[in-house]
Amino acid sequence: MLIQTPDHTRIMTIERHILEEQRSHPEATGVLTSLLYDIALAGKVIASQTTRGGLAEILGQEGTVNVQGEDVMKLDVLADLMMSRLNYNTGRLAVLASEEQEDIIPIPPEYPMGKYVLLYDPLDGSSNIDYNVSIGTIFAIYRRKSGDGSPATLDDCLQIGRDLVASGYLIYGASTMLVYTSGMGVHGFTLDPAVGEFLLTHPDIRISEKPKYYSVNQGYEKYWSEGIRRFTKYLQGDEPDKAGNFRKGLSLRYIGSMVADFHRNLLAGGIFYYPSDSKEPKYPYGKLRLAYEGAPLAFITEQAGGTSSNGTTNLLDLEPTQLHQRTPMFIGNRDLVEKAEEFIREYD
Ligand code: AFP
Known about the structure:
- It contains 8 helices and 13 strands.
- By secondary structure, it is of the alpha+beta class.
- The protein is globular and about 60 Å long.
- The strands form 2 sheets. An 8-stranded mixed sheet has the order 2-1-3-4-5-6-7-8, with helices on both faces. It has a 5-stranded mixed sheet with strand order 10-9-11-13-12, with helices on both faces.
- 1,6-di-O-phosphono-alpha-D-fructofuranose binds next to loops.
């Protein structure tokens, strides 16, 4: 008997997808494709550990000992290790930098030097690990600026977001997803745990034009500026904008893992913000980091039709001066981000 296979159910693995994107760049050598694939592999390993998160050998403080007498490695340390171990000796990278490490991670001299730079936040939302809440990994890929062959430097890691070659995130939630852009739209893949492959489930993601949510830690309201307070009231439908118009109120959703908050708003429409506040005088620019969280998610947002800002300037246009530089962050639907800028201009 002839078995009919409908062609609309074509299954696209992440590898095939990246290769097909590569074909539209005849000059491509395949190194970026392999690098993205290495990151997907690191994501699979991290996912396999996060799903075991309730088990004794993973939970607990670093430095403690599990029932087998082995040292416990905390999940964020393990994720950091997986990202660096699966990437530093492939010959694709010139340097790495991790949100968990103070300095850049050079490529040891015994390994070949590549042309890309990888910055990553290995486990964003790590304070949620012990509560079985979604967490994620964020990555940003640049071309090295310094000459080929020589060891790359800090300068190679301090690049403006507009120069990103690719960025993305993995989210470890009810399912594991990888979402990325290489400047040709945003594509989402879901890990099929049975076969261990990321399959394309969300092609060409566009941020919904009818935003549903705003996401901010409202517990910090007392530390906010007047502009941020009024902007939040505006999102709730209780404050007019400059032209005197009220908007329909949005619902509040805040997980406290940026990847998860961002992912929901990317699909459902909305705005995530973490403004500067007076809570931590040592972090006058808010908590989030430009290189590891701001720029990579800003690239995704822009590719999906949204935008981002630090309150005055697009995050992709900010020149980093330090590896762990913090920035206020507003990211999501364009009209909402622009409205945040308007309130800040008006009142702060
Ligand atoms: P952790 O990785 O330390 O949990 O920080 C996560 C994060 O940087 C980001 O994912 C959240 O959006 C933000 O912090 C939450 O911070 P608050 O707890 O201050 O709201």
